[in-house]
Amino acid sequence: MPQMMRHRGFQIALCVLLLLYIFCNQRGLSAYSQSSSQNSHATPLPSSKTQTGPGLAVHDSDSHLQAYMPRVSPAMLRYSHIKYAVYFLQSGFEILAAYLFLQFGLAKALRAKAEGRTSNLFGQLLIFVPIFYVYIFLATLPLRFYSGFWLEHSMHLSEQPFWGWFEERLKFLVLNIATELPLWFLLFFSLKRLPKAWPYLIFGVSLPLIVLAVFAAPIVFDPVFNDFTLMTKSPVRDHINALAAKAGLPEASIYICNHSKQSKKINAYVTGIGASARIVLWDTTLQKLPEDEVLAIVAHELGHNVLGHINCGCVITALFSLCMLPFNIYCTPALVRRLPKVWQIRDLTDIALIPVVVLASFIVSFLGDPIINGYSRRIEHEADAYGLQLTGNGPAMARLFVALSEQNLSEPDPSKFIEFWYFSHPTLKERIKFALAKN
User: Fold this and answer.
1) CA distances from residue 369 to 10, 83, 190, 365, 411 in whole angstroms, order as listed
2) Mean pLDDT of 369-377
3) CA end-to-end distance (rounded Å), the chain
4) How far apart, in whole angstroms, are the C-alpha atoms of residue 63 and residue 141?
5) What are the pLDDT digits (tens) for 193-236?
6) How crowded is residue 411: how many other Cβ atoms within 10 Å of its Cβ?
């Protein structure tokens, strides 16, 4: 990476090309399709102590309640710190893999192979994209195996068989290829046929795609990996219905996900938009949490719905695309011409540009995580505040946060740097203090 970043023009080009990747990557389009009650990287956790619940004890200093901590075990610290390290290593591996694909001439060789087989653009992409995606998959597989399978089993957080885990990784790969291949075709078709108007076309198409990706996530993509069933009538469901009615959402859809086949962790999230909007509870959450804590987690997710956080995410993504439009029109072609000569990228219509766009996305996504996570922490705090207002039960929400920490082996009070760069939720030290202060 230091070698790559010596070129100032190349550095700028990578940032600009992120725009292209946003239009060509379904993962970017669906970034706001889910909002979880735990950190998307590693569950954000509690801190300090209250008499309400296991693992809590109260401390008072200068008449102010101090932070509240769950039981912090060596296993919890080891697991969390490994997860932090893997996140940074994984980001570096992805960047390095894409860079080496270009630097060693694999991109131009694969382009030559595709162009030698067919003159049809879609046919060329049908050769280039799957091979490149499989390369990235294999290059990053060892670290994903260590973090996603071996570590989870060694910490007794999962009993999923290896072939079940590996099958899911293959499904992710196939879904990525199947959804992104048409988008790559749309991009390069417009670049070839509309050399001056392509930025407007891509921007126009991106707007419905953003909404479509968020809408389709819970009804098309998520069921590939898990079963989702409507929560059946029960005392807990009746209390959730009453809570939803109080929030002005009497018809709120609550689904149960059989996530226990993959993990023993607990979680819930809100996903979808419009008719596909729903709250999803992992089955482990219902199995391991008492009713008042289940209601607390549902109230938090109802807060996301009522406050329109997913809709706001779609709008922010669309505004970002709009802001980048003039930059893409006036700067992108010149910047592509300044890419390293050894990569032999001919022009904007060259399909060998795909690894460059992916490389750019890896770099800018990593560097942009602190900004995205900062915004995420803000809306998660808003959902906490709404949930507390809805239930009026601060101790139950505090106990929920402790359970998230202890059940998911998440560090309660990470360093400020880790919180800034890695955490998508406030630490539970902050969340528990807030919950009890509002009680």
Assistant:
1) 21, 16, 30, 6, 19
2) 96
3) 49
4) 52
5) 998 888 899 889 989 999 999 999 999 999 999 999 999 999 99
6) 26
Structurally, how many domains does the chain consist of?
1
b/e 144-156 (16+ beta carbons within 10 angstroms → b): bebbbbebbeeee
3-state DSSP assignment of residue 97? helix
Amino acid (1-letter code) at residue 113 = K
**9-45, pLDDT tens digit by residue?**
333 333 344 344 433 343 333 333 444 555 545 333 3
Helix axes 394-408, 354-391, angle to 10 degrees: 140
In this prediction, residue 272 carries a pLDDT of: 94
Q: 122 Cβ partners below 8 Å, 6+ apart?
A: 185
Which residue from 143, 147, 142, 109 is spatially nearest to 128, judged by alpha carbons? 109
Task: Provide DSSP, 322-377.
Answer: HHHHHHHHHTHHHHHTTS-GGG---STT-GGGHHHHHHHHHHHHHHHHHHHHHHHH
What is the radius of gyration, based on Cα positions, of the chain?
Answer: 23
Rounded CA gap, 8 and 396, in Å? 52
Tokens of 110: 């694969």
Question: Which secondary structure element, helix H or strand E, spans residue 5, and what is its range?
Answer: none
Q: What is the DSSP string of 249-307?
A: -TT--EEEE-GGGT-S---EEEE--GGG-EEEEEHHHHHHS-HHHHHHHHHHHHHHHHT
Give the Å distances, CA to CA, from 333 to 5, 21, 323: 20, 15, 17
Asked whether the beta carbons of 43 and 424 are under 8 A apart, the reply is no
What domain range includes position 234?
Answer: 4-437
Q: Which amino acid is at 301?
A: E
- The reported pLDDT for the residue numbered 63 is 38
Q: Which residues of 303-331 are buried (b: 16+ CB within 10 A; e: fewer)?
A: bbbbeebbbebbeebeeebeebbeebeee
Q: What are phi and psi of 39, to 5 degrees?
A: -60, 135
Query: What contacts 48, CB < 8 A, 6 or more positions away?
Result: 59, 65, 66, 67, 68, 69, 429, 432, 433
DSSP string covering 10-39 = HHHHHHHHHHHHHHH-HHHHTTTSEEESS-
H or E element that contains 61: strand 60-61
